[in-house]
Amino acid sequence: MRYASRTSCCSRFCLRLIPERGSVYIVLVFLLMLVLPVVSVVHDRFVLGNQARLSLLVGGWFVFWGVGVRLFSAGISQTANPRFTAVTILGLKTSESWMVVRELGFGNLAIGALALGSIAARTWITPSALAGAVFYGLAAINHIAKKNRNRLENFTLLSDVFACCVLCVYLLSVIQAR
Virtual CA dihedral for 108, 113, 119, 123, nearest 10 degrees? Predict the structure, then answer.
């Protein structure tokens, strides 16, 4: 009996090491929403010596990574493979939803392209932040309204709320600076 409990304990531990479906998605979102914006802000401030207000640096880089790269790459994925978003994230079982997910991908491509352009046209940062805040805020409300969310949808809900909050703080700091 003692041996069997060790085996099941070891089995459970080993199973935790095997990536679950969607774990690459979680890692990518974590990188795009937190790690890469922070690294970019630190590089901008301490290596390049940018003395802009910290809220403007954070907002600009978050718009690029969290809105631009995340939504543009999500748009590519949703357009090319709507099944992943439909089945894995949203828990939809039939292919009837794929057309709607593909159209969501078109919207993500449009918002993401605007935010990606903000790296070259700094005046695009604030409109991109507004579009991103509205998108992430509405997406979060939509996820909250769903009763039986899966693990990935809960993670997406949290990341959407986080993104909306960061973008709203940036927008408020821009308004306050004027």
Answer: -100
